[in-house]
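In the current project phase, we have settled on a layout for protein records. A sample record is reproduced below.
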Amino acid sequence: MGLVDRIRSALAELGVRLVGRLVSVRSRSFMLDEPDVWGAVPVAYCPVGSVWDGQKCVALVGPAPEPEWAPVPSTSGVRVRNSKRAYATSKTRAWVRNAGLVAVQVDGELQVADVSGPEPGPFPPHVSHAAGRDLDVAYRLDTYPTPADVPISQGFLAVLSAMREGVETVGVSIARKAEIEALAASLGWPLPKLSAWPGHQTHAHVRLRA
């Protein structure tokens, strides 16, 4: 039996039907009717769910599960000020990643400051921020904190509106609450629940659903 016939026989045993005559091995293309070019190079066909490692077919390994408690990373559309003060649950990290995708669409970055500490529990000087679902974020998508005399940005409002389903409440100052509601009304954008909290003139406190 020639090389081509042996290859076809091996593929048939694996339940693979060869379509066409061109196959690719290690980024090089060979015609099956030129068996001399193969030499000792193995056939790079493996059953579904496995891949050729250079010597044999090995099972594909899925991505490692994310740890439940880890820092929020700076990713596309997200800027984390200090990862040592930005630990969160996997659910919170997923929300932030998705919020970043929205921020990218409006040419900005969600500015994330304190979330939680390396271990769940009290996180001075905050009264909350113990469970990995409270985030301090700027009112704009370019820098943190937002000076009290600088207006909120439409980009920040876009993120808040698009990601509202995962939000329990957003703590803001009384003045910022009125500002956000007025801008949202002018744009016709829905908002998550807003709560008037003292001390939040330069940043918003986003509390996510448990």
User: Anything to note?
Assistant: The radius of gyration is 27 Å. The CA atoms of residues 147 and 209 lie 28 Å apart. Residues 90-105 form the longest helix (16 residues). Confidence is low (pLDDT under 50) at residues 14-44.
